[in-house]
Amino acid sequence: MLDTILSINPQSFEGILKLILIISFLIQIFYWLFFYFRIAFIKNSETSIEEKGISVIICAKNEAENLKNFLPKFLNQKYSNFELIIVNDNSSDNTEEILVNFKKEYKNLYFTNIESEQIVNHGKKIPLSIGIKAAKNEILVMSDADCYPVSEEWLSEINNSYTENTEIVLGYGGYDNSNGLLNKIIRFDAMFIGLQYMTFAKAGIPYMGTGRNLSYKKSLYYKMKGFSSHYHIISGDDDLFVNTASDKKNTISLISSKSYTRSVSKTTLGDFIKQKRRHLSTGKFYKFWHKTILGTEIFSRFLFYSSLIVLSILLPDSYILLYLFALRFIIQSIITKIASDKFKEKGIAYFTLFLDILLPLLNLWILFTGIFINRRIKRGWK
Questions:
Q1: 3-class DSSP state of 60
Q2: For residue 142, how many other CB atoms are within 10 A of its CB?
Q3: Given this model, what pLDDT does residue 109 score?
């Protein structure tokens, strides 16, 4: 059987498919063993160091209910030297009233308002820049109003991750666990993205981070002239900043059960697609090398499954096809289980095969349809 699949005649259709299968299989195994397996070796710092000043910055736009529910989780951190800055971006609900009430109890809470007549048709980068300029500390921590830290030691974990050369700390931002297939898709998608950007950073190729849980130094922000290199792009305050400001020496991945944030998961497919379309729109602005290495993984995955399916029809008795599929699946499943355990994502590792095929197709569809509706998307970050 091995001779059958490996006897390649590149001048025949079957031979071309065999060649594609073998090459794509080897590429996939390389990604899973060279990059993704590093998830097993990423650990948080176990050494407590002096509490440096930290400024947590959250931009909020009509997030009154989320602020009411989640602000206490930010404000009640077991960390003595931090401030929380909320930039209220032209909210039409009672966000300001809620912030005023919280301010009465928490003296380290500060907020500012952006009024509609001041700035129109802007993205998140303007309110975030306002928050950064107001921050009094060197270490900045970004999160969202619909997020919350899972532990009261969230800031301590971030603080302990900073070494002499560290300028960026990549945290993990997952989603709440709830019933339904859509929730599984959203959580698996976030976990795989986290697996990618954290292991790539571990390998010396940092390319993005998530604004739900991201930290960097204020001096780095000014050294990069803020978001000036991608200011014209509505999204990208998180991943594009990391893409331009990170290198193999100044960026680390932080993985510990106390360092994560969780977000409110979308409840409709339409809202999820809208969110994904906004996130995916920034990928084309990544560095060429980053786009190449990310695109190669997705393309090789597509070629692997496609050639495997066609060859299974042409060579139904070739057990080597099953062996190749099984070997990749076993490696993938083991690493995915390690990742799901590390990220505390219960119940989604069982959907690995289904979502490994579905998500690239869904992302491709979102990107393709986004080309035609991009001009109709309302400017803004919410």
A1: strand
A2: 27
A3: 97
Give the number of other Cβ atoms within 10 Å of residue 358's Cβ: 14
Q: How far apart are CA 320 and CA 60, in angstroms?
A: 54
Instruction: Give the whole-angstrom CA distance, residue 28 versus residue 165.
Output: 33
Task: Give the 3-state secondary structure of residue 245.
Answer: helix
What stretch of H or E contains 331?
helix 319-342
Distance (Å, rounded) from C-alpha 82 to C-alpha 98? 20
Residue 246 zone, left/alpha/beta (φ > 0; ψ -120 to 50; rest): beta
- Residue 207 has φ and ψ, to the nearest 5°, of -135, -15
Of 254, 12, 240, nearest in space to 139 by CA: 254
Contact 381, 211 (CB under 8 A): no
Arithmetic mean of pLDDT over the chain: 90
3-state secondary structure of 84: strand
How many helices (H) and strands (E) would you count in the chain?
13, 10
**Residue 14: how many CB atoms within 10 A of its CB?**
15
The single-letter DSSP state of residue 172 is P
Q: What Rg, from alpha-carbon coordinates, does the chain have?
A: 22
Q: Which residue in the block uniquely carries the two structure tokens 């602020």?
A: 67
Tokens of 21: 């299968």
* Structure-model confidence comparison of residues 231 and 295, the more confident one: 295
Give me the residues paired with residue 335 across strands.
none
Q: How far is CA 31 from CA 26, 234, 309, 356, in A?
A: 9, 31, 21, 14
Yes or no: is domain 43-265 CATH 3.90.180.10?
no
